[in-house]
Structure formats: structure tokens, C-alpha cells
Design brief:
The complex is a heterodimer. By secondary structure, chain A is mostly helical. Chain A contains 18 helices and no strands. Chain A has 2 domains: 221 residues, no CATH class; 148 residues, Fumarate Reductase Iron-sulfur Protein, Chain B, domain 2, CATH 1.10.1060. The termini of chain A are far apart. In chain A, 39% of the residues are buried. By secondary structure, chain B is α/β, with parallel strands linked by helices. Chain B is globular, with a radius of gyration of 18 Å. Chain B has a 4-stranded parallel β-sheet. Chain B has 2 domains: 121 residues, Glutathione S-transferase Yfyf (Class Pi), Chain A, domain 2 (Up-down Bundle), CATH 1.20.1050.140; 123 residues, Rossmann fold (3-Layer(aba) Sandwich), CATH 3.40.50. In chain B, 57% of the residues are buried. The chains are: A mainly alpha, B alpha/beta. At the A-B interface, helix 9, helix 12, helix 16, helix 17 and helix 18 of A face helix 2, helix 3, helix 4, helix 5 and helix 6 of B. Chain A: This is (Fe-S)-binding protein.
Chain lengths: 443, 263
């Protein structure tokens, strides 16, 4: 029976990672529902962006306070994972602080010491994040789309992280006390610049109690990590993984450059070619259906746009800088991303249930994103510029406008007037093209 | 100022078998909007002053298609684009300057994919090169020491990363440049982009241009400088809405340089 903990641990580990992998595969399947897109260009620039924007957090620190706090949590998350490695080895093989037997004492002490300091900084960061959301009530965290689950999700993540850090420090404090008692399994190892302040609270506890605390904290910490890992799939917190590929696939051409639709180019070229036979029947064997213009549902979006939706962590910087949102319009770029993900998830569940997508009478347009939101956008790119993980909400708005105008002829009336003018006289206003140079003779 | 400006057209150049150094793409606003026409004329005067050999398309110019594209009408956009590209390529145009960031962005970024590749500059970039090359000289004149704020046009700034050219010109005018809280990368739109210029705004609690004008007025500048005919309309309307016409002027950077030179 002495191997029972090892076996239980291994089962928990395999189950945790296995379920997570299963869900990641669902995400990949859902993203692949989108249109394929070629992103094999600008490789050097893309990697540069990953280093600068994703690893280097260059867009987070534009706002110094949350930028710094996020930096603590981010570095803490990455570095403390080295400790998780040790925990996993210990768990499987029943060792204790196994790295201390491999690494030089100085290095091991330095590592454990820095984990503690980082854990403390993470704790501080997370607590301040919580106060910004719940006490300070920053506007961007209390927008309409943040009611209900998104709000609870955000707080749950913070509670998770608080508990994990407290468990980590408690475990270390109990370990130190046991080392001081000379408890057999507890090797003399590590430096504990933070948890040493917890040790006095444990004075006078028996060895058995201390072992119970240490083991309890150890188990809860690693199980908590596994639960948290699996929580990601259901949460906006997926960004801790997806931010990296998302930044890689982010826009690398000038922000003002909107893609030209190839299907339209083909049609326009045909129209302008005097040699083409307008009555020609399609070539033998072509069964191709004409391309749909624009997007009315998530399958009409491309895979990068769908990855964007899963990556969004709902920080709301986009909405905070959106001129339409700033002036009380319904448009919120963050809501565009949240709606896209919600609809994609709905389709994913439909596929899980039916084996393939069974039309459910719903779509992204109107059932999630209203026309009023789409028409309020000034295409100013403020949302794209400010997103710390290179999400492009504007491209989704544009694709949906294309659907409205080219598939449904449903532009606002004044825009139809402007477009008719462009068609008839080459300007959005009803002036004659022949008067275009009159200004030179006017005073 | 009764004598007409000398503005040669490409057709005239062609007839003489000549090719201008640069094509001035005037744009719809610059051709038809009364306020924007003043910018067009100011820029033409500067081109003459610097002895630039330029021409316009005149009646052969047509909308670039920008508002159609941003409204979602890709079809109309590409029709406009390909027609314009045929005209431009027919004349063998290689270099274009425009005073409209929307035309600038469309020709720079969206025309190449449809067969129209040109070297294109926004007029503030062009004026900056003229100053650097010594073809044009500018001194502070009447703007020296005046408090001025610059409103970044989205399609010049964020869309194409040009924040410095207009500011360099203002520096040459020796103004006291006061930045708004939201400037450059974080500059706020005037509310005209994405074809909003041609429609009523959606319901909200304020118009975008009024909010942006308020931000500009917080700097207590006498002049709001900009580099876009649409921003010009929006900011002017904003100033009117705030009943501040007597205290705040909206000027294009090109107009300021022409005024400083008393052209």
C-alpha cells in the first residue's frame, strides 16, 4: 500500500492532462470550421511579434499599473511551472524535493527563493486585480457584456490563483518547520524568503500535524493546478496558451489594408473585359457554387478570426478605446469577440451531440451581433491597435457588413444613397464628375 | 485673389507629350466640399511655390472606392478601383500625392492587389520632403508660439503608422504643440471613418466628433490642426456644437504652411 499515493497521483495527472487534451482537440476542430487562410508570409515579422508582443508583453505595459501587475502574474506563472515539474516528479516517484538532489545547493535555494518571491508578487497582483474589478469597479469591467458568467469567470480565475499561491507558501512553511524538527523524509533544502514569515504561526504544532498540513497543501496545490488547467477550456483564461499562436497569426500588413475579395475581383474583371461572352455557359463539369460574400455566421469567418475569439480574455481595452462605445453606442469590440466565441461553442456542442452540424435556425448575425452594432463602427482601428494579443475585431465587423450589403442589400438608407452616387457620378455626393475641377476657378 | 489657379491636367500633359513629376490626387472632398477645397488650393499654391511639376486628373478622377469598401460594398469598391487603375496606368503614373488619408490608404494598400502599384505620399509627407530638400522654406510667421493641438487622422496614423510628418511640419511653424491625452497610436477617431461620414450615427449619448472636439478643447489650443478633409468637417462641426467658433479654428497643416507664407 505504500505506493498508493504514487498511483493516485499518476491517475490524477493522466486524467487531468487527458481531459484537457480532449478539450483542446475540440477547440482545434471548432477553429477548423472556419475558412482556411494562408499565413505563411512575413515569417520573421511574425516571430518578432511573438517575442515582442506575446513574450515581451509590449502592449500590456502601455498601461503601466495593470501592465506591471500582469507582468508579475505572467512571469510567476511561467517560472513557478519549474516547481510544478518537481512536484510532478515527486508525486510519481514518491521522492521529496527531488531537484535538490540534482542541483547544486546554491542554485536550488535560489530557485525556491525566487519562486517564493514570485508567488508573493502573483498574490499581490491578483489581489489588486480583484480590487480593481470589485472595489474600484473600473468601467471596462462593468460593461453590459460583462454581466453574469463573464464577471464570475474573471473573479473565479483570481480566486483560483490566490488559493494556489497561498497553498504553495503554506506547503513551504510546513516543510521548513519539518526540516527544523529533523523529520526524516524532509531533506534540508531550499530558501524561503516569504514563507518563513508563516513559520511562527506553526510553532508548537506536532510533527504529525505539520506533515498533514504539508501533504494537504501539496496535494491541494497540484490538484488545484490540474483543475485550473481544465477550467481554461470553459473560461476566457485560455489566453495564457492561445495568446502565443494568436500573436503569431496577427495582422502583419498596415492596419489600413483591408483584404480584397478574390471572388469579387474575378467578377469585376469579367465585367470589364470586352472580349468575354456574357452568355457563356459555365464550363463542363464545374459544380462550384458561387462564393458567399461576407459573413453571417462563424463558418464564414476565417480560422484566424475564430482563434481570435478563443484567445480574447475580455480585458476590454478595445471597448475602452472604441469611439462608438465611448459615445454610448451599442458597439463593443469585446462583445463582437465574445459573441463569436459563444456562437462557435454553440455550434461545437451541436456537433458533439449530432455528429455533424444540424442547422439550428440561428446565426451570428442578428442572433448574437445586431446590425446596429455593426453600423456604428468607424473602422478607426483603435481596437486592433490596443489589443495586447493582436486580436482584430474590425475584420469580423467588415466581413459582416459585406454580407449585409452584398448578400442582403441591407445597408442603411443614407449609405445606399452615397453608394449610388459613387456608382453614377464617381463621388459619394450628388455632384457631376464633369465638375470635379471647378474648384480651380472658384475663389 | 481673383486670378484662377494654374492647375494642369494629365490630359493636357499628355497632349504636350510630357509627364509630370507627380500626380496630385485631389479626392472627392477636396474637389467638392467647400471647406476642403480651401485645403486643395492651399496645397496647389505650395506646389507652385516649390516649383513642383504636377498635374491632376480633373474630370477623369473618380472616387477611390474607400467609403464603398468600408461600408461593405466590395463590388463597388473594386469597380471604382479598377477603373481608376486603368486611368492611372494609362497615363503611366508612378508617383501620387494626395491630401486625403482615405485616398492615400486605399491607393497605397488596396490598389496594388488589383494591378495598381504607385509610390504614394500623403501631402504632409510630401511637404516634409520639400522642406528637407530645401525646395520650400517655412518660418513660424503668424503661428509662432501659438498653442496648437494635432488631431491624428486614423487612416494616416494608426492605419499607416505616420504620426511624425504632420508634427514635424508644425514644429517648423514654431508652434507650441500641445498633445491631447489621446494622441498618435491612441488617437480618437473624429467619427467620419468607415463611411460614417455619409450616414446618421447610431443612437448613443453623444456624437463622436463632439467628444473629440471636447478633448481637443481641453488642451486650450487656439487651433486644431489636422490632415484630413473628413476630420476637418467633423472637427468644425464639433467646434460649432460647442459654440466655440470664436476661440478655436480648425486648419489643415497645409493651409497653415500656406498661410504662414501668406500665399
Amino acid at each position: 500500500m505504500q505506493y498508493l499515493p504514487n498511483i493516485l497521483f499518476t491517475i490524477a495527472l493522466v486524467a487531468g492532462i487527458g481531459y484537457f487534451t480532449l478539450n483542446i482537440r475540440k477547440i482545434i476542430r471548432n477553429i477548423k470550421l472556419g475558412l482556411a487562410v494562408d499565413a505563411s508570409d512575413h515569417t520573421a515579422q511574425r516571430w518578432g511579434n511573438v517575442v515582442r508582443i506575446a513574450l515581451g508583453q509590449s502592449k500590456m505595459v502601455v498601461r503601466p499599473i495593470p501592465g506591471l501587475l500582469h507582468f508579475f502574474v505572467y512571469v510567476g506563472f511561467i517560472i513557478i511551472n519549474i516547481e510544478v515539474l518537481e512536484i510532478i516528479i515527486d508525486g510519481i516517484f514518491g521522492t521529496h524535493r527531488v531537484l535538490s538532489t540534482f542541483l547544486p545547493t546554491g542554485l536550488y535555494n535560489f530557485l525556491i527563493g525566487s519562486f517564493e518571491i514570485l508567488a508573493f508578487l502573483v498574490l499581490v497582483g491578483v489581489i489588486l486585480f480583484w480590487t480593481r474589478r470589485n472595489i474600484q469597479k473600473l468601467r471596462r469591467f462593468w460593461a453590459n457584456e460583462m454581466k453574469g458568467w463573464p464577471k464570475n469567470d474573471a473573479n473565479l480565475i483570481l480566486y483560483f490563483e490566490m488559493v494556489l499561491m497561498v497553498l504553495f507558501l503554506t506547503m513551504n512553511a510546513a516543510d521548513q518547520s519539518l526540516q527544523a524538527l529533523g523529520s526524516p523524509h524532509y531533506v534540508q533544502a531550499g530558501a524561503y524568503p516569504i514563507s518563513k514569515f508563516i513559520v511562527p504561526f506553526m510553532s508548537g504544532l506536532s510533527e504529525a500535524t505539520l506533515i498533514a498540513i504539508e501533504r494537504g497543501a501539496w496535494w491541494l496545490h497540484i490538484l488545484g493546478i490540474l483543475v485550473f488547467l481544465n477550467y481554461l477550456y470553459f473560461s476566457k483564461h485560455l489566453h495564457i496558451i492561445l495568446a502565443f499562436p494568436n500573436v503569431y497569426f496577427g495582422k502583419v500588413v498596415p492596419k489600413g489594408k483591408f483584404k480584397n475579395l478574390q471572388s469579387v475581383t474575378n467578377e469585376v474583371k469579367m465585367m470589364m473585359d470586352p472580349n468575354i461572352d456574357p452568355f457563356a455557359a459555365p464550363a463542363e463539369g464545374t459544380t462550384e457554387t458561387p462564393a458567399k460574400f461576407g459573413a453571417s455566421d462563424v463558418m464564414d469567418l476565417n480560422r484566424i478570426q475564430l482563434l481570435n475569439a478563443y484567445t480574447c480574455t475580455e480585458c476590454g481595452r478595445c471597448t475602452d478605446e472604441c469611439p462608438a462605445n465611448n459615445t454610448g453606442k451599442k458597439l463593443s469590440p469585446r462583445k463582437i469577440m465574445m459573441d463569436t466565441r459563444d456562437r462557435l461553442e454553440e455550434i461545437g456542442k451541436n456537433i458533439n451531440k449530432n455528429g455533424e452540424f444540424k442547422p439550428d435556425g440561428k446565426q451570428l448575425l442578428d442572433d448574437y451581433i445586431t446590425r446596429e452594432e455593426l453600423w456604428a463602427c468607424t473602422t478607426c482601428n483603435a481596437c486592433v491597435q490596443v489589443c495586447p494579443v493582436s486580436i482584430d475585431p474590425l475584420s469580423i465587423i467588415m466581413d459582416m457588413r459585406q454580407y449585409l450589403v452584398m448578400e442582403q442589400s441591407a445597408a442603411p438608407m443614407e449609405l445606399n444613397v452615397a453608394m449610388t452616387n459613387i456608382e453614377n457620378n464617381g463621388a459619394p455626393w450628388p455632384y457631376n464628375q464633369m465638375d470635379r475641377l471647378n474648384w480651380k476657378n472658384e475663389n | 485673389m481673383s486670378e484662377a489657379l494654374k492647375v494642369p491636367t494629365m490630359a493636357e500633359y499628355m497632349a504636350q507629350g510630357k509627364q509630370p513629376e507627380v500626380l496630385f490626387w485631389v479626392g472627392c472632398a477636396g474637389s467638392f466640399d467647400d471647406r476642403a477645397k480651401k485645403i486643395t488650393k492651399a496645397f496647389v499654391k505650395l506646389l507652385h511655390k516649390a516649383n513642383i511639376d504636377f498635374a491632376v486628373l480633373g474630370t477623369e478622377e473618380s472616387c477611390t472606392g474607400d467609403p464603398a469598401k468600408r461600408a461593405g460594398n466590395e463590388f463597388l469598391f473594386q469597380m471604382q478601383a479598377m477603373t481608376n487603375i486603368e486611368v492611372l496606368n494609362g497615363y503611366g503614373i508612378t508617383k501620387i500625392v494626395t491630401a486625403c488619408p482615405h485616398c492615400f490608404n486605399t491607393i497605397k494598400n488596396e490598389y496594388p492587389g488589383l494591378g495598381g502599384t504607385y509610390e504614394i505620399m500623403h501631402h504632409t509627407q510630401f511637404l516634409k520632403t520639400l522642406l528637407n530638400e530645401g525646395k520650400l522654406k517655412v518660418e513660424g510667421g503668424k503661428f509662432k508660439g501659438k498653442k496648437i493641438t494635432f488631431h491624428d487622422p486614423c487612416y494616416l496614423g494608426r492605419a499607416n503608422g505616420e504620426y511624425e510628418a504632420p508634427r514635424n511640419l508644425l514644429e517648423k511653424l514654431e508652434v507650441e504643440l500641445v498633445e491631447m491625452k489621446r494622441n498618435k497610436r491612441h488617437g480618437m477617431c473624429c467619427g467620419a471613418g468607415g463611411a460614417q461620414m455619409f450616414k446618421e450615427p447610431e443612437p448613443g449619448n453623444k456624437d463622436v466628433n463632439v467628444l473629440r472636439t471636447e478633448q481637443a478643447m481641453e488642451t486650450s489650443s487656439e487651433i486644431i490642426a489636422t490632415g484630413c478633409p473628413f476630420c476637418m468637417v467633423m472637427m468644425n462641426d464639433g467646434v460649432k456644437a460647442k459654440n466655440a467658433e470664436d476661440n478655436v479654428q480648425v486648419l489643415d497643416v497645409a493651409e497653415m504652411i500656406a498661410n504662414a507664407e501668406d500665399l
